[in-house]
Amino acid sequence: MALFAGGDKNAWTAEYAEISMETIRVGGRRYSDPDILSLIKETGELVDPRSNVLSQARKLTAKLRGFPGVPKDAFGRAKIMASMFGIKVEPMKLEQRKRESRDALIMPTLTGSKVILYNPDRPESRIAFSIAHEITHCFFPNSANGARFRAMVSEDSREANELERLCDLGAAELVLPEPEFRHECNSSYSLAQVPVLSRTFGTSYEATAFRLATANPGKAVAGLVRFRLRKGEQRQIAALNLQTSLFPQKANNKILEAVPKYRRQSQFLSDSCDDADSVRWNKSFNQSSVIYSAAEKRTLCTAKEELPNESGDLGRLEAIPAPYQRSEANANFPDILFFWEKI
User: pLDDT tens digit string along 93-108?
Assistant: First the structure.
């Protein structure tokens, strides 16, 4: 696990050790984020945080169904659910929009309440999911150590992303409720359905694609892959470029010859999956995979494949270039969304 450089190394190493000594394995997954650990141990017994987050989200959506005149669009629903927590939802001011990279964020107010600020310049479907994500943060007991813990680990590490993935899981349940989503899928889960499902629920293509997995009654995995080097290779090349600019004889051909591949960036699993079904962070897909066909043809492609994980299960793998390409994406090898369902 990498720590950020800077400051007194001994001091922040000691602080990190104090915060993150504990790791708990629950429901086939292991957790070390202090906010998640506080949820796991909240009742005095070990609680599966995935089940807990889903349970809280489902209770909230069930309560919402009891209100008259609830809007069908995700943005309207998200604002009402925030109000049920006593949280105001307001647009960011112009200056904050310019400096804030996130679609939405939750902040305390001077009166002790909370407010979710969103960027009105972003697509409403993305804002809705981000508001729901911030609401899900409220499912976790307060922890003084959580924010410090996440600031001390590499931003691309499993540990740094544990809480965010759980909040994404809760957000999907809030804006794409499982009963309604399964009804609309009508037992047919495919990326080909995403445009219609996205319009029905007022959600982004990406969030809807991931929901194909998390709402799936069988074994299913969805996620995003990016064409890139390993993070370690990227850091080595950056350091080597600096060294060779000063000392040309320091060139290391082995590092410079590293080849980018499509590597797992994010993933979402159905409740039927276990640890063996997970595609590890940074794991690459074989160049014969349909992932590369989708990148070349720039359209939806399908094949029967095993995922690069430990399960050995054969399934239907669908892949398509993501409609929204982030700034880090390779211009010639776009980010790819995938959906896999066990045959």
Answer: 998 998 888 899 999 8
Which position has the higher pLDDT, 114 or 239? 114
CB 189 within 8 A of CB 197: no
Q: Give the amino acid at 156.
A: D
- Please answer whether residues 214 and 169 qualify as being in contact, where contact means their C-beta atoms are separated by less than 8 angstroms: yes
Given a contact cutoff of 8 angstroms between Cβ atoms, the answer to whether 312 and 185 are in contact is no
- pLDDT, one tens digit per residue, over 228-276 is 987 666 666 666 555 555 455 555 555 556 689 999 999 999 989 988 9
pTM for the full predicted model: 0.79
Residue 189 and residue 316 in contact, taking contact as beta carbons nearer than 8 Å: no
Q: Write down the residue that tokens 């790819």 correspond to.
A: 336
On the question of pLDDT at 17 being above 50, the answer is no
Q: In 10 A of CB 10, how many CB atoms?
A: 8
d(CA 276, CA 298): 30
Contact 277, 316 (CB under 8 A): no
| Signed CA dihedral, 98, 101, 105, 107: sign only | negative
Amino acid at 138: C
- The C-alpha atoms of residue 171 and residue 212 are separated, in whole angstroms, by 14
pLDDT band at 51; cut points 50, 70, 90 = very high
pLDDT surpasses 90 at 133: yes
Q: Name 40's Cβ contacts closer than 8 Å, sequence gap at least 6.
A: 24, 26, 31, 46, 47, 48, 49
Burial of residue 35, with CB atoms counted within 10 A of its CB: 0-12 exposed, 13-18 middle, 19 or more buried: buried
Alpha helices in the chain (DSSP H): 9-20, 34-40, 49-65, 74-84, 94-99, 124-137, 146-152, 158-175, 178-185, 194-201, 205-214, 231-246, 253-256, 290-297
